[in-house]
């Protein structure tokens, strides 16, 4: 089941990635944790080449070469991150805008719980970016919520995509694709769960 949830999340992430990539800020994408290069190519999505926060955007750490630092990079990575580094030289780091995109599946009646979770998840990352020299006011976290049953939230999905530089029509198209994915995946998840429960039942 965990593998199914992970692939659902990654596939939704790839749908988001292509929408953002084709938007006004597409050139600012600096990392995306949305699955392997093969999966991206199968879905016609550009492979960013980096699935964790670029090391030069973080302050030097004493544990830089340790397994603990590698674990931190794996567990603290956003789904997608943008930084307008191409518009300003590295010396003007305090002028860079950083957009952290986190995709969350939520229950229909409790979307705010996942909004809070998305923001809390990246508090440590924000602190490390600030320590590196980026301005806190220029670091924004954009949670994108998807109901497990396929409900799309106008403010938390379509509105957020527009804030990320996606045109309205493209945002609506992206939302429709996300809706279709979640509905299809819900059927697969329920079918698989029932199969596992039946197999585990005594007798």
Give an overview of the whole structure.
The chain is an alpha+beta fold. The chain has 7 helices and 4 strands, in the order αβααββααβαα.
Short description:
The protein is an alpha+beta fold. 49% of the residues lie in helices and 13% in strands.
Q: Give the tally of β-strands.
A: 4
> Rough shape?
globular
Q: How would you characterize the largest beta sheet?
A: 4 strands, mixed
Q: Return Rg in Å.
A: 18 Å
Which class do the helix and strand fractions yield? alpha+beta
Low-confidence stretches: none
DSSP helical segment count: 7
Bin the strand percentage.
5-15%
**Average pLDDT level:** 85
- Distance from first to last alpha carbon: 23 Å
Order of helices and strands: HEHHEEHHEHH
Give helix % range: 40-55%
Write the layout of secondary structure elements.
Layout: H1 2-21, E1 29-32, H2 37-42, H3 67-75, E2 80-83, E3 98-106, H4 111-121, H5 123-132, E4 139-147, H6 154-163, H7 168-200
Parallel strand pairs: 3-4
Antiparallel strand pairs: 1-2, 2-3
């Amino acid at each position: 089941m965990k593998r199914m949830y992970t692939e659902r999340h990654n596939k939704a992430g790839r749908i988001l990635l292509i929408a953002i990539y084709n938007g006004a800020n597409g050139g600012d994408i600096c990392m995306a944790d949305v699955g392997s290069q093969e999966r991206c190519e199968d879905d016609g999505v550009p492979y960013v080449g980096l699935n964790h926060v670029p090391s030069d955007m973080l302050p030097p750490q004493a544990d830089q070469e340790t397994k603990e630092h590698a674990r931190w990079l794996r567990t603290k990575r956003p789904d997608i991150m943008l930084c307008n580094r191409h518009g300003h030289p590295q010396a003007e780091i305090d002028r860079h805008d950083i957009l952290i995109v986190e995709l969350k599946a939520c229950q229909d009646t409790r979307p705010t719980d996942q909004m809070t979770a998305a923001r809390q998840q990246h508090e440590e990352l924000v602190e490390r970016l600030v320590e590196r020299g980026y301005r806190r006011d220029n670091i924004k976290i954009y949670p994108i919520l998807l109901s497990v049953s396929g409900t799309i939230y106008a403010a938390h999905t379509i509105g957020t995509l527009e804030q990320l530089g996606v045109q309205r029509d493209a945002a609506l198209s992206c939302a429709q694709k996300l809706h279709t994915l979640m509905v299809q995946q819900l059927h697969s998840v329920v079918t698989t769960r029932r199969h596992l429960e039946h197999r585990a039942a005594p007798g």
